[in-house]
Request: fold
Amino acid sequence: MKSSKLRIGALAVFFAMIFALVGAGTALALQNHMLSARNSLNAALNELKQAQPDKAGHRNNAINDVESAINQVSMGIQAAK
Reply:
């Protein structure tokens, strides 16, 4: 169970990075994909925070990475306005 939640977090970070890189050159007035990515990242963050703490620090690292990805996506949304 813990591993699948960490996997979700890692995938969310990966997709957020892809969206940020692809979307950087194609900012549109409607940010549907960026907003959807941010919503998915927020859901992943919520799941990670509810997960049992792990011994090796991977959960905390995933939380930090997802929070960073949320921040980057939010800044991308603001930059396109």
